[in-house]
Design a protein that fits this description.
heterodimer, A: 230 residues, mainly alpha, 8 helices, B: 228 residues
């Protein structure tokens, strides 16, 4: 269909890099989102304030600025912090780490509210009932809480993951070898920008299509045995 | 954090704010003008209208804005026929390429928001309007769109803030809006912490103003909200 002038392999490699960034960032995002939800629900003032500030910043500042800030400013901030503690060291920020942490933290900020609402949606009576028949806390978590939180949170998390996927394109600005950057290199070599950027867009489209399908399957599984309002 | 540097470079970065606001306002107006007919086509019973529009929305929502911008800014330069046509006046200019990419992108998201809102207008009202002999144009301008606008507003407000943040991508095609100027200044001074902090604060102020603006519009429109 497409003549990729021998750059098909570079695009495939870039796609693999993009997928890795997505998965790592998703992991960080889920963990930090759960932490944020816990912090907000805990009612412990400093934690609540920290989470509020975090979500406020993420909602207001472009992802591109955040990525550039973490990558170019991160080592300076860490260096200043180290010298504040009395150490004199230079800390280099790895681009992959900067990209994955930034995208993960963006995901986590939005996921905080998704998890918080999902946790609150589990009826209190069910937990009390489970405790009253002698279920241990761990068992309540595993059998009552997690399956329901998962079911309530899945659609919201799915939307966030679609946004995360598209945001991975931004990390090409800090020189990671992912799909956008490898595409730009192919363009620089062949002078065929239209062909390659269209090819890249079709790859992104394929990734989002596959994710949409997987999310549908997961949602169906999560909702097994649940009656639907007509 | 050296606040003196922040103060020193603030005026220069503020010149980018004008460009950022221009990008946002032009994109929002053009995007909305494009989104309304797209939403109507998407809801249309004719497949010839709904399927191509679905394809358009699917593409623009399924791919990164950065690729869309690069297809328009770098992509079309591949063709000599484009470079020799009048289109080149726009496609060689990073400002217009940004406007085109952002408009096409936000129109796709907005059309999807509007489509859902139009569908949520109660069928009974539409039947009632038709039964008293309202023309389809009046039906839309008097019954459907005013109510759909109110339902779509929260979603549209979110989309507008996301779009405003998206305008920072214009810096990748060398447009000197807030992010572009900030990046240039950092290349000169190597003060990333202070200058990105400043840019971040500017974007946060802009998004807060936008969110307040939409709250005000929602408040003034809610008098149209039907009781019950």
């Amino acid at each position: 269909m497409f003549d990729l002038y021998g750059f098909g392999g570079a695009l495939a490699l870039g796609t693999w890099g993009t997928i890795k960034i997505m998965v790592y960032a998703l992991g960080i995002g889920l963990v930090s989102g759960l932490f944020g939800a816990w912090a907000k629900l805990s009612g412990i003032r400093p934690f609540v304030w920290f989470t509020e500030l975090w979500t406020l910043v993420i909602r207001g500042v472009p992802e591109l600025i955040l990525i550039l800030f973490v990558y170019f400013g991160g080592s300076i901030v860490l260096g200043r912090f180290a010298s504040f503690l009395g150490y004199d060291i230079y800390i280099e920020i790895n681009p992959l780490l900067a990209a994955v942490v930034t995208l993960g933290i963006v995901f986590g900020a939005y996921a905080t509210d998704v998890f918080r609402v999902s946790i609150l949606a589990v009826p209190k009576g069910e937990i009390e009932a489970a405790r009253s028949i002698g279920m241990k806390k761990i068992m309540v978590l595993r059998r009552i809480l997690i399956p329901q939180i998962w079911r309530y949170a899945l659609p919201g998390l799915g939307n966030l993951f679609m946004i995360l996927q598209k945001d991975t394109a931004l990390v090409s600005v800090i020189g990671l070898n992912e799909l956008m950057r490898n595409t730009a290199q192919a363009v620089a070599f062949t002078k065929k920008p239209f062909v390659f950027y269209i090819a890249a867009s079709l790859i992104y489209l394929a990734i989002t299509t596959i994710t949409t399908f997987i999310l549908q399957v997961l949602e169906k599984r999560a909702n097994r045995g649940v009656g639907r309002a007509s | 954090m050296d606040l003196q540097i922040v103060m020193e470079y603030a005026p220069e970065i503020m010149t980018g704010v004008v460009i950022t606001i221009k990008l946002v306002v032009v994109t929002m107006i053009l995007g909305l003008l494009l989104a309304v007919p797209l939403a109507l086509c998407r809801n249309s019973k004719s497949r010839w209208l709904s399927i191509p529009v679905y394809g358009y929305i699917y593409f623009f929502r399924g791919t990164p804005l950065l690729v869309q911008l690069f297809i328009i800014y770098y992509g079309f330069s591949q063709f000599e026929s484009v470079r020799e046509s009048f289109l080149w006046n726009f496609l060689a200019d990073s400002y217009w390429c940004s406007i085109i990419a952002f408009t096409l992108n936000t129109a796709a998201y907005t059309a999807e928001i509007l489509r859902g809102a139009i569908k949520s207008v109660p069928q009974g009202q539409i039947e009632a309007a038709l039964s008293v002999g309202m023309s389809p144009v009046k039906l839309y301008t008097r019954i459907i769109l005013p109510q759909a606008a109110l339902i779509a507003l929260p979603g549209y407000s979110n989309e507008s803030v996301l779009m405003m943040k998206g305008t920072s991508l214009a810096s990748t095609v060398a447009l000197l809006e807030v992010t572009g100027i900030t990046r240039n200044l950092i290349a000169e001074t190597f003060m990333p912490v202070e200058l990105f902090f400043l840019a971040g604060v500017i974007y946060m102020i802009l998004s807060t103003i936008m969110i307040w603006g939409f709250k005000l519009i929602e408040l003034s429109l809610s008098r149209f909200r039907t009781a019950g």
